[in-house]
Design a protein that fits this description.
mainly alpha, 0% strand, elongated
Length: 40
Amino acid sequence: MSKHKIVSKENLLPFILVASLFFMWALPSNLNDILIPQFT
C-alpha cells in the first residue's frame, strides 16, 4: 500500500490557516445564541 497524504507539503500552511480561521469564526457564531440572552 502506498501512503497518500491528505494535504501536500506546499499546501500545509494555507490549509492550517483556513481551518483555524473557520474554527475561530464558527465558535463565536455557535455561542451567539447563548450569549445574547445573558447580556440583555
